Amino acid sequence: MTTPTKKITVIGATGQIGRQLVSLLGNRGHDVTAASRRTGVDLFTGQGLDDALAEAEVVIDVINSAAPDDSSEAFFKQAAATLSAAAAKAGVGHYVVLSIVGADEMAAEAGYIRGKVAQENAAESSGLPWTVLRATQFHELAEPITESLIIGEEVRAPEALIQPIDSVEVTAILARIAVSQPLNTIHNVGGPQKMTFSDMARAVLRHQSRMLTVVDDPSATYSGLEIDYTTLVTDDEAELGTLRLTDWLTRR
Ligand SMILES: NC(=O)c1ccc[n+]([C@@H]2O[C@H](COP(=O)([O-])OP(=O)(O)OC[C@H]3O[C@@H](n4cnc5c(N)ncnc54)[C@H](OP(=O)(O)O)[C@@H]3O)[C@@H](O)[C@H]2O)c1
């Protein structure tokens, strides 16, 4: 069965996910408006937004803040409020947001995450049909996270699980959600394997042929966030990707 084509606005269209999404939806015949500041659409100020949403049946918010620090909270809150109001004014039929697994659990810890939760809440409280897709950490983060845990000759890993996922698979799921009936709830997706931070670090170091010692450290944090053992991983209900981190590292 073929899906009818839709008019879809992607906001954050020049980013890592946005670029792939615009191309995937366009290749499937959908009428895609690619929006970001580089195309004259600013979600912070609202500039260009009404035009970008004109006649849109679906809007997908995949923006990101320039700096993942506490200033992100105000950025995401303002951008989400602007988009929610404009999408309601335009009568958009499906408001889709990409967020992070465990966002609610981590919100007390960091402004960036509080911003992501505000972005989710804006869709939910917009009065429009909505879906939030929460994804686990992309494979692209495995190397930078490992790097951030190195102290001297050791990798000091938080005692927690992580579940890296292929961003291409996340994009495909977002594209599927965008052209399906709104779920009006949060849908979680994670990578195929739950692994400890130390297992992830060992996989990265093996791939990089580096001989550092990996140590579980109860005081280590994930980018300054004190996380519980299962904060970053999905529950049993979640959808799972298929590409394993080690295969992604090899293929890249
Ligand atoms: N990395 C992960 O592991 C992970 C996991 C789960 C969820 N996510 C979420 O995935 C989302 C997308 O991430 P990404 O890596 O694709 O981000 P990215 O590559 O940093 O792209 C961000 C996009 O936002 C646009 N943007 C920034 N400020 C804007 C503004 N004021 N108005 C309009 N557009 C604006 C940027 O374009 P311009 O500069 O042209 O405006 C760019 O297109 C993020 O919200 C992130 O939280 C990430």
From TrEMBL:
<dbReference type="GO" id="GO:0044877">
    <property type="term" value="F:protein-containing complex binding"/>
</dbReference>
<dbReference type="InterPro" id="IPR036291">
    <property type="entry name" value="NAD(P)-bd_dom_sf"/>
</dbReference>
<dbReference type="Pfam" id="PF13460">
    <property type="entry name" value="NAD_binding_10"/>
</dbReference>
<protein>
    <submittedName>
        <fullName>Uncharacterized conserved protein YbjT, contains NAD(P)-binding and DUF2867 domains</fullName>
    </submittedName>
</protein>
<dbReference type="InterPro" id="IPR051207">
    <property type="entry name" value="ComplexI_NDUFA9_subunit"/>
</dbReference>
<dbReference type="InterPro" id="IPR016040">
    <property type="entry name" value="NAD(P)-bd_dom"/>
</dbReference>
<feature type="domain" description="NAD(P)-binding">
    <location>
        <begin position="12"/>
        <end position="140"/>
    </location>
</feature>
